[in-house]
Amino acid sequence: MKDTGIRRHTIAIAFACAGLMNIALETASFAASPANYVAGLRRLTETEYRNSIADIFGSAIDVQGRFEPERRVGGLLASSSAILSITPAGFEGYSKMADRIAAQVVDEKNRGKLISCTPKTATAPDDKCAGEAVSHYGLILFRRPLTGAELKARTALAASIAKSSGNFYTGLRYALASLISSPQFLFRVETASAKDNTLDNYSRAARLSYLFWDTTPDAELLAAAQNGALATPDGVSRQVDRLMASPRLETGMRAFFADYFELDTFGNISKDPTIYPKFMGGVADSAKEETLRTAIDLTLKRNGDMRDLMTTRKTFINRTLASIYGVPFKFNSDWMPYEFPEDAGRSGLLTQVSMLGMFSHPGRSSPTKRGVAVLDIFLCQPTPNPPPNVDFSIINDVSNPTLKTVRQRLMAHATNGVCASCHTHSDPIGLSLEQFDSIGVRRVQENGQPIDVSATLQGQNFVGATGLGKVLHDNPKVAACFARKAYAYGVGASSERVSAAMVRTQMDSFTAGGYRLPVLLKALATSPQFFSAPPPEQPKVEQSKTKTAMNDVVH
Amino acid sequence: MKKAVLVTAMTVLFAAPAVCAPWVRGYVVGNYEPAFYYGAKTGATDPGSDCPKGANPDNNYRQILKTAWRSDDEVRQLTRTVTETGKDPTAVMTNALAHRGFRKDIETYINPFGAPDPGVQEVTGKIAEGFDLDGNAKTGGFTSPDGRRGIDNAYYRVMGCGNSYRGVAYQGYLSNRGNDKMLEGLYTMVVRVSGNQDPMNDSNARVEIGYSPDHIVKDAMGNAVSDYSFRIVKTAQYSSLKATIKNGVVETEPLAELHMPAFAWYETNRGEAVLFKGRVRLQMQPDGGLSGLAGGYQDFRMVYSKDTFNVPSGGQSRETTYYQNQIAMYYALKRNADGIPDPKTGENTAISTAFRFLARPAFVVDPETPAVINEPLTSDRAEIERALFWKAVTTGAISPEPARRTGPRPQPSKDGLQVNNGASPTVASADR
């Protein structure tokens, strides 16, 4: 419940930071009609923003600027979108981006195809034409029709600037920029009906579109919202089928998988070039792409069992990755499918450069980091941070003459009872992956000693990455965790707060359907829980402060 | 004792035969240069056993430009910018340097024999890398660092004291420059060794050496990254040689014409190197890499021609930038030519040469589809001048000077390579 309080508070902060009191007022009046309430705000992620702008104005429009950082909650960045606001500095960045975009839309090169009407004269205001453009783009930017006040405010802004500048398109540029920098665009404002505590149709359209396509709703989806089709299970089902049949589903699922596999971690890691000279520019991007291609190919293109992501030897490599995996590359295209031989010791995503590289130290592998990552990502079992006074000296001493392997050093380290409690969970997983170094290159020895990759996890003995892959494949918690995160991703909640009841029907379908992603997605998006939106509760402690902020904005 | 002998004998008799299976190893060359033995301790100019007087000094332009038909005052005017104003001499002396022959109208780069031999300091050391190309240990005059006698590397004798070439292996000025360019994508040379027995000992192996259209990729330390894949294309820069391998040392049989990528540091001097009676020796390294030596006879006229007429400014840039004297070089190459005699005159037309290289392990693959080849850039002027030189040197008659160059200079392409003067890239068939 705390999240909802934060969410409510965020509404106020976001609007206040934006400095667009009038617009906030309009929104509040839109959302706070007697039957509706704002159920949540979800700040667009960078990819959602970029995809939306490309869909609305065309891919030729250049989007340049800094985005506010995202934060991982419950294993997903998407979940943090519901509790993140925009700082004043961040808003300035979004404003500049909006202006650059709007300037491109109305420039001489683009206006002919992007502005559907022509003003009577280009040197004076034209309310009809400006209103038409603002109304058209307002609908797809705000993901709902503009209110009368919103339309009027922008049309007036366009007229005022057109008059002072003597240029119709300058006026329209600022009107469009105000739409693009508005919280109504930067945040997905999810409004719900007080009658049944479910999202209204436009909010449903946005939730579906961003889940399946990672972008703003298209015309058909908005029409389904407008004509009420999304209020019915049949109407929702038809739209879900349409969205899933589109090749754009791949874009949406790439965004989900990138978030789920925590591929953004690559942005925060580095490797020691003297130890890993092969980890040069381009490796991280290639590794991310490999993982995404593997996941999309298995779950969508081949409609395979999602659990096979733990065990498959099939992957996709480019010339860079071929070098790290030590295999020849064929030059027929930039990427080629590749299947590792059985004796390569590779097992699905667990042994891809991405997972092995992201969860390692700059100069050495880390069974603990790898184990923690597997527990967190695939089993939804987060590990608490180590206490601040931990002595890592034994683990870090890679030249210790008696403790030559990581296993030996970790065992010595774990004799400390405080450390042992966590290491006993994470380390067996990571130790089974020790035949791969910090960037994913296969090795069988460490400091001249053979690497022991035998391990025991929850009573199950296994050997190496392939053993771990099989154990995870058959562990029902892996599929359950996947379903829970898919739900959390779709609705913008923390996966740690998703109860079994919320995903029971989806999980049943997922299991019965052979753990196929399309089955899960359909079950998820057509379940009553997907559009459920209980009203946010006021946090008790901050009630007075929040109320003041809201009063400032709404009144 | 008898028992021990018996066990040994039985072990020999019944030992499992060596596993014979096809194998292949690929390499990409990351360092490449003429095999010039360096006899000093440090520095390009220091005296050493190779060049007791050190490297050749910078050119004395007043001396070079002094001819019977040019007055001292004219020479002073031409060289004034160098000695008095410190300006780039190329712009001022370009025309003058091309005219220093017996007559005023002789273009001396095209007709080097139309000027007197100014002489050059040659290598006097007795150690050189290379091959005994003529199979005669008494000729050649060099012994290799590992004790092989009769090493023929007369090209080293001519050029080894050159300021731009001299230095610790792979550290000379042009070597550094060439290797930097190679790593940045100027050209790629690959080697593939294959056999049917054992990579360390194979009596029937094969060595392929050639050009790859795929750029070298640098690792995080700036070296050619290991285990990358490269296509080997059977262009004019490709050769396949029969070889034997003993304890990791690969020796090829001689090939009438060994074609391979040329050592280059600039777009217009890359291309094919042709070594007559060419051969290759490779040493597999413990780290998985390879060191190599390729040798044979180069047509000395081609050596001169490619070196002199390959950049927009012609031989002048060699003289003003690299401290070479092209006329002296021509005479020295001719004087030291030691192979491939002309059937009519009996004069040697080629000079013994060796190149050395270091290579990293790589996957060298045949292209499955035709590969686009980035042909080396040349220019109309260079082609005209080479043709005029060739005519002059083969007929002994002075060739006329061509009209000054016109048209744009070659421009670098977006990927850092030079464009091919508008010519379409050649597409080589994989099975050519």
What does the model show?
The complex is a heterodimer of chains A (555) and B (432). Chain A is mainly α. Chain A has 3 domains: 2-197 and 538-554, no CATH class; 255-474, no CATH class; 476-531. Helices cover 53% and strands 7% of the residues of chain A. Chain A is built from 26 helices and 9 strands. In chain A, the strands form 4 sheets. A 3-stranded antiparallel β-sheet of chain A has the order 1-2-3. Chain A has a two-stranded antiparallel ribbon with strand order 4-5. In chain A, a hairpin with a 2-residue loop joins strand 6 and strand 7. In chain A, helix 7 (127-142) crosses helix 8 (148-165), helix 7 (127-142) packs parallel to helix 9 (168-180) and helix 8 (148-165) runs antiparallel to helix 9. The longest helix of chain A has 19 residues, at 88-106. Chain B is α+β, with helices and mostly antiparallel strands. Chain B contains 10 helices and 15 strands. Residues 4-17 and 406-432 of chain B have low confidence and may be disordered. In chain B, 46% of the residues are buried. In chain B, the strands form 3 sheets. An 8-stranded antiparallel barrel of chain B has the order 1-4-5-7-8-10-11-13. A two-stranded antiparallel sheet of chain B has the order 2-3. A two-stranded antiparallel sheet of chain B has the order 14-15. Chain B has one domain. Chain B has helices at residues 2-14, 61-65, 72-85, 89-97, 154-159, 173-183, 300-308, 315-322, 326-336, 380-395, and strands spanning 23-34, 142-143, 149-151, 189-195, 202-211, 229-231, 239-246, 249-252, 255-261, 272-284, 290-299, 339-341, 348-365, 371-373, 426-428. In chain B, helix 7 runs antiparallel to helix 9. In chain B, a hairpin with a 5-residue loop joins strand 10 (272-284) and strand 11. Classes of the chains: A mainly alpha (555), B alpha+beta (432). The interface between A and B is medium-sized, with 20 and 19 residues.
